Amino acid sequence: MPNTHREPPDYEALRPQAVALRRAGLSRRQIRDRLHVHNDATLTRLLEGEPPPEWTRRPNAKDDLREKARELRIAGRTYDEIVAELGVAKSSVSLWVRDLPKPRRSPEAMHQMREARWAPYREARDRRIEQTKAEATSQIGDLTERELFLIGVGLYWSEGSKSKPHRRSERVIFINSDPDMIEVYLAWLALLGVEREHLRFAVMIHESADVAASERYWADLVGIDVSTLCKTTLKKHNPKTVRKNVGDGYHGCLVVRVLQCADLYRRIEGWWYGIVLGAKRPA
């Protein structure tokens, strides 16, 4: 019976030869035939740490995606952003770029992330707010003359000019920046029988704003020609003050004066005290 036992390979002698052949560009099959090593495990051990020559490397369909993923990571993109752009699994992205440093986000990027995260909650909150406002609006309905009368008295006493013990001045002057409040106030004056020719209008606004546009805005609101407005009062701009009332939505305030109004002022003051007394009476 023939002896099939083979001597174990001499690793110390074969290792330098295998490495030299590998670095010369030979494939595993070529090295195996040259060295007469017919055991794959043995050949793998001899070639440990030596990369295969480029010509033996099989092309990988994901090589381009891997390179693109690394470029995106270096550019500061997140795993989720890379996944969304390349359409690959997050596990693949993690494997491809895990050796790269984690990108540092700019303050702008962090702000955008927070905005995106909280956007659904803000939208839901805004819907609830608008629904509440709509329900409250529907509860008011049409105003009676008495209701408008009482509203107007309270409105004037909170926002209109008032005579003081140290400064007697029985003038009816109303200043406000809210166009809706101006319209309610004018409706109240009309209810009291105040004629429009007894009214004077003027604009009060910061000098850094678009004065001409604001004058047109208020004139259109109250239905008069811009030329009939009284002289505009300009507030000096203080660069040290950080104002919020800026931009296209800022139109300053409208000043509404009633001429020959001493008697009307006294009535307004009396009406207000009547409301106060009425509120204090026990139910």
Topology:
Blueprint (H helix, E strand, L loop, with lengths): L10 H13 L4 H8 L4 H7 L16 H12 L4 H8 L3 H8 L9 H32 L6 H15 L12 E5 L2 H13 L7 E8 L4 H12 L10 E3 L17 E6 L3 H19 L3
Parallel strand pairs: 2-3
Antiparallel strand pairs: 1-4, 2-4
Descriptors for this entry?
8% strand; alpha+beta; 283 residues; four-stranded mixed β-sheet; 52% helix; 3 domains; 11 helices; 4 strands
Notes on the structure:
With 283 residues, the protein is α+β, with helices and mostly antiparallel strands. The protein has three domains: 11-56, no CATH class; 63-97; 145-280, no CATH class. It has eleven helices and four strands, in the order H-H-H-H-H-H-H-H-E-H-E-H-E-E-H. The protein has a four-stranded mixed sheet with strand order 1-4-2-3. Helix 8 (145-159) crosses helix 9 (179-191) and helix 8 packs across helix 11 (262-280). It is rod-shaped. The relative contact order is 0.07.
Write a compact overview of the structure shown.
By secondary structure, the chain is α+β, with helices and mostly antiparallel strands.
Sequence stretches where pLDDT stays below 50 over 5 or more residues:
none
What gap, in angstroms, lies between the N and C termini?
Answer: 125 Å
- Class computed from helices, strands and strand pairing: alpha+beta
Instruction: Give the number of domains.
Output: 3
Largest sheet: 4 strands, mixed
CA-based gyration radius:
42 Å
- How many strand segments? 4
DSSP strand content? 5-15%
The ordered H/E elements are HHHHHHHHEHEHEEH
Helix content: 40-55%
Mean pLDDT: 87
Shape: rod-shaped
Strand order of the largest sheet: 1-4-2-3
Number of helices: 11
